[in-house]
Design a protein that fits this description.
By secondary structure, this protein is mainly α. The chain has 23 helices and no strands.
Length: 505
């Protein structure tokens, strides 16, 4: 049902196939069709999966009639996308409006060409090409220029016009190649980290090689797509080396270039701002980070996927800054939004981990929630303790904070045997996957501190004695020390150490 939920979020207020306006209130006496019933249920968040959808229609979720219904329903939802009212919608910036206009006119242009209407196609192509070039819609502009070049050879021979559009074609081809190479480079450096967040220093070498190859196009191409791909590849290389100041400089340069363009993309600029937020956080510049991230959230459409991701970032930075009230407010916005259920499970998994740390803070009396936190966050401790998340595959990444949080919950509950099992798992990870060459010094030391509790029979006095030197060392190592991923230390280890002490007799 995820793809249908996407339609329900996008098409609100627009016509469907056969001119059925699903979102308008029905006239008295007009009977609702199954498609209207399903659409409204999706739009209002009343249907979350296929079982609920089938039950709504009185059908079997695995039966052929329901499958046929889904296929036809999805087909009906494609056509209205061409009629989105982008011009009067506050959800689209000028560049996005121009992009949509180009794509809509492109569909008409292609229809004219294939129905042998070259004169009308020529008139439309001239209107499209200027709009596309002015707004960096390179592929559409290239198709228009290619057609017009051919038109002034085959239909109306004109050498001046032919040469004019030939120059356009050559320039746009270069832009198209540059854009593709830039985006391929970006994808090449983020692909290893799609599921695994552990440090991979080879990414920095790969990124540097790709940036060098893209430099050949940098002076010739200045489109939004190329600039974003080039500088994204560059900041990933700097961040993979933990060069936070250099990464901030890259983000600032990209933001400046995009801001100077006559056409721009606030969403792409937001990506650079969010990565700047990460760098500021790793440098303990929390006030700047939270302020910048708040600006990004306010500029985004509420309930959109990016809006959720930026709130996720706000929650994480707030936890790192031990600003638990701010993290709590971000969490409430996430979980109370009606579009929350439509988010992918991988994103929800990340939220559950952050929610776990927020609840730990609440249990340590760091927050004054207006309502029961665990209830509003739909947090089930049993499920969290027994789940096998994707993070478990990432031995030097986010599986570590999962195990630490599970240990802390069990320690609070005085479930010492189960807590001991989590420490065994942590110790195995430290021995097998961490060494002095890998870095992760703060994380290594904290795991050693936690594991030392076993030899103290979970007594406070012995634990303090065994960990005194280690916690002193941890406090001397900056959180942004070049050796660990942004998300691995969710709440400072010094704070978690104090929480452990609070749980011991």
């Amino acid at each position: 049902m995820t793809e249908l939920k996407e339609f329900a979020q996008v098409i609100d207020g627009y016509k469907l196939r056969q001119i059925e306006v699903l979102t308008r209130p029905l006239r008295p006496g007009v009977q609702e069709t199954r498609y209207k019933v399903m659409y409204h249920a999706l739009a209002e968040g009343l249907v979350r999966n296929e079982v609920e959808g089938a039950r709504l229609l009185g059908l079997d979720a695995k039966g052929r009639p329901f499958r046929r219904f889904l296929m036809e329903f999805r087909r009906r939802l494609f056509a209205p996308l061409l009629f989105l009212d982008t011009e009067n919608s506050p959800n689209f910036n000028p560049t996005q409006k121009a992009n949509f206009e180009c794509l809509r006119k492109l569909a008409t242009f292609q229809t004219l060409v294939y129905r042998h209407c070259p004169e009308n196609a020529c008139i439309l192509a001239k209107a499209i090409i200027e709009l596309a070039i002015n707004n960096d819609v390179t592929l559409v502009a290239l198709e228009m220029a290619t057609f017009l070049k051919r038109y002034y050879v085959e239909r109306v021979p004109d050498s001046a016009q032919y040469l004019y559009y030939t120059e356009y074609v050559e320039r746009l081809r270069l832009d198209w190649v540059a854009e593709n190479k830039a985006m391929e480079s970006y994808q090449a450096v983020i692909a290893p980290a799609v599921k695994f967040k552990s440090t991979q220093l080879q990414i920095s070498k790969r990124a540097q090689a790709l940036v060098n190859s893209l430099s050949l196009y940098k002076e010739k191409c200045n489109t939004i797509i190329f600039v974003s791909g080039y500088y994204a590849t560059k900041y990933i290389g700097e961040m993979s080396r933990f060069h936070w100041h250099d990464a901030i400089a890259v983000c600032d340069e990209a933001i400046r270039i995009l801001d100077e363009k006559s056409c721009t993309s606030p969403r792409i600029m937001a990506v650079f701002k969010v990565h700047k937020v990460i760098c500021l956080t790793m440098l303990d510049r929390y006030v700047e980070a939270l302020q910048l991230n708040s600006e990004v959230i306010q500029a985004e459409i509420e309930g959109s996927r990016n809006w959720f991701l930026y709130l996720d970032n706000q929650m994480l930075v707030s936890l790192k800054a031990t600003n638990y009230q701010f993290a709590y407010e971000a969490a409430i916005k996430i979980y109370s939004n009606k579009n929350f259920t439509a988010m992918p499970e991988s994103i929800k998994e990340s939220w559950m981990l952050l929610a776990a740390y927020l609840i730990l803070a609440d249990r340590n009396q760091m927050i004054n929630p207006d309502i029961p936190l665990e209830k509003v966050l739909n947090f089930k401790l049993g499920r969290f303790l027994n789940q096998v998340p994707n993070y478990s595959k990432d031995k030097k990444g986010l599986n570590v904070p999962v195990l630490i949080a599970q240990f802390l919950f069990l320690l609070q509950a005085k479930e010492f045997d189960q807590a001991h099992d989590k420490l065994i798992a942590l110790r195995k990870y430290r021995v097998k996957h961490f060494n002095t060459e890998d870095g992760y010094y703060r994380t290594q030391l904290f795991i050693r501190m936690l594991c030392s509790v076993v030899g103290t029979s979970f007594t406070k006095k012995m634990f303090l004695k065994k960990t005194a030197d280690m916690i002193k060392t941890v406090t001397q190592i900056p959180k942004g020390h070049p050796d660990q991923h942004f998300k691995i230390e969710i709440i400072p280890y010094e704070v978690l150490w104090q929480w452990v002490i609070n749980c011991l007799d």
